[in-house]
What we know:
Radius of gyration: 15 Å
Distance between the termini: 13 Å
Shape: elongated
Structural class: mainly alpha
Oligomer: single chain
Order of helices and strands: HHH
Strand content: under 5%
Amino acid sequence: MDLNIIRAGIFFVAGLMTILFRKKLNNFKNRLHEKLHMKSKVKDESKFYFYFGIVLIIISIILFLFTISN
């Protein structure tokens, strides 16, 4: 089995998780900043997580297409 298929799957799952659970991910980030006594100027980054998830899914598609072409 080619390693790029595994990498594509990991990127795809990570992209789906960031898109589907972006509110929980944002809450986790805010709680982590509180525990580490860091100040965060931006409290809601849900839109960023949506775009980041799309980028991860695009990377997974590119890896999958690269695997198929070889």
